[in-house]
């Protein structure tokens, strides 16, 4: 009974925080590069995140980590995978320590990503594997937000118009050519701020646009 009441209290507290003007909340933009697209079958190769206190991205506390999974990564005939070389995997991070750090960063923050289905899916697998809770206030999916906006304005939406690069281009943001977790986390954070401050689709509070956890 006590556990149920605590869960209810946590839910209510989260709802109250999300009712604030969105600029008053803290955000964590995150990107994951993996060996494949399935969170249940593939491994995280690298992860990066950066805190956002609107209107600024806190680049000074950005985090970037690579995981070798205890074995040498086979790059095949390619010298890199997701911008990573064999030298990067030599200096890999400890997964449990890294994900514990991420758990603390997400506490009382809204997670921002450009494909909730994949990124949040991988983090739920992390929860199971390492018994580390990932409890952000909510998840803001920049892809889903842009899809909803385009459907309202134009009707049909092409898949290639929802890539991170294509979404950024519509807001006049520069194109980052390197496919790298830290670059993409920052790029996602910039897109989120552009979406939030856009006069065409202004945000009011995260309660209006949050994704369910």
- Cα gyration radius (Å): 18 Å
CATH class wording: Alpha Beta
Which percent band covers the strand fraction?
A: 15-25%
* CATH-scheme architecture: 2-Layer Sandwich
* The CATH fourth-level homologous superfamily: Ribonuclease H-like superfamily/Ribonuclease H
Describe the largest sheet: 5 strands, mixed
Enumerate the strands of the largest sheet in spatial order, edge to edge or round the barrel.
3-2-1-4-5
Mean pLDDT: 85
Number of separate structural domains: 1
Number of helices in the DSSP assignment: 8
Global geometry: globular
Distance between the termini: 23 Å
The low-confidence runs, each spanning 5 or more residues with pLDDT under 50, are 75-80
- Provide the helix percentage: 40-55%
Summarize the helix and strand pattern as letters: HEEEHHEHEHHHH
Provide the CATH topology. Answer: Nucleotidyltransferase, domain 5
Backbone structural class: alpha/beta
What is the strand tally? 5
Written account of the structure:
Mean pLDDT is 85; it is low at 75-80. The chain has one domain (2-209): Ribonuclease H-like superfamily/Ribonuclease H (Nucleotidyltransferase, domain 5), CATH 3.30.420.10. The chain has 213 residues and is an alpha/beta fold. It has a five-stranded mixed beta sheet with strand order 3-2-1-4-5, with helices on both faces. The chain contains eight helices and five strands. The protein starts with a helix and ends with a helix. A hairpin with a 2-residue loop joins strand 2 (44-53) and strand 3 (56-66). It is globular, with a radius of gyration of 18 Å.
């Amino acid at each position: 009974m006590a556990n149920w009441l605590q869960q209810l209290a946590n839910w209510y507290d989260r709802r109250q925080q999300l009712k604030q003007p969105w600029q008053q909340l803290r955000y964590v933009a995150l990107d994951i590069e993996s060996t494949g697209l399935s969170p249940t079958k593939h491994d995280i190769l690298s992860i990066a995140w950066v805190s956002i206190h609107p209107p600024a991205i806190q680049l000074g506390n950005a985090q970037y980590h690579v995981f070798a999974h205890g074995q040498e990564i086979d790059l095949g005939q390619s010298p890199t995978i997701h911008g990573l070389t064999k030298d990067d995997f030599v200096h890999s991070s400890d997964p449990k320590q890294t994900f514990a750090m991420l758990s603390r960063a997400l506490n009382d923050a809204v997670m921002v990503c450009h494909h909730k289905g994949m990124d949040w899916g991988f983090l739920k697998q992390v929860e199971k594997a390492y018994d580390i809770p990932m409890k952000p206030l909510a998840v803001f999916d920049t892809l889903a937000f842009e899809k909803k906006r385009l459907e309202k304005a134009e009707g049909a939406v092409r898949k290639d118009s929802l890539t991170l690069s294509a979404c950024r281009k519509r807001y006049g943001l520069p194109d980052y050519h390197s496919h790298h977790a830290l670059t993409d986390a920052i790029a996602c954070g910039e897109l989120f701020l552009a979406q939030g401050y856009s006069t065409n689709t202004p945000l009011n509070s995260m309660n209006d646009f949050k994704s369910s956890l």
